[in-house]
Write a structure and sequence with these properties.
Elements (H helix, E strand, L loop, with lengths): L11 H17 L28 E5 L4 E3 L2 E3 L1 H10 L7 E6 L4 H13 L5 E6 L3
Parallel strand pairs: 1-4, 4-5
Antiparallel strand pairs: 1-2, 2-3
Length: 128
């Protein structure tokens, strides 16, 4: 009968790797430090709520008339009113009748651009 060879498993490399991992985790882990708290009495913060009313300008362009915030005005009056609110970031809605000629709309848009009013939305309407 033949003698059976015994297999020997060498655990030395496995133990080395385990110890290296333990050392790695000990070095890289951060230990929780004791928190230091200061006993302070802070004043009460009271803030007044301010309501900000965001305005919106409505300009209507019709075949015959211009309308600014619901009142009919001339082109020169519109120019004066827009110069008074120059450089503001107000939203402006330009409501345009479908029958209006394009050059009339372009005049209003140019006037808005000259006064640095760039937050413009165009809306088409049909007046019957």
């Amino acid at each position: 009968m033949r003698k059976r060879e015994q297999l020997n498993l060498d655990l030395t490399p496995l133990i080395d790797v385990v110890f290296i991992l333990i050392i790695f985790f000990l070095v890289t882990s951060s230990f929780k430090q004791k928190d230091f708290a200061l006993n302070l009495t802070l004043p009460d913060a009271k803030a007044q709520q301010i309501e900000i009313e965001k305005k919106q300008l409505n300009i209507e362009v019709d075949e015959k008339f211009l309308s600014y915030m619901g009142e009919k005005i001339s082109f020169l009056d519109l120019q004066v009113k827009l110069e008074n609110i120059k450089n503001q970031k107000l939203p402006i809605i330009v409501k345009i009748d479908k029958k209006v000629r394009y050059d009339r709309v372009i005049e209003v848009l140019d006037l808005l651009q000259l006064n640095n009013l760039n937050n413009i939305a165009l809306q088409t309407t049909s007046k019957e």
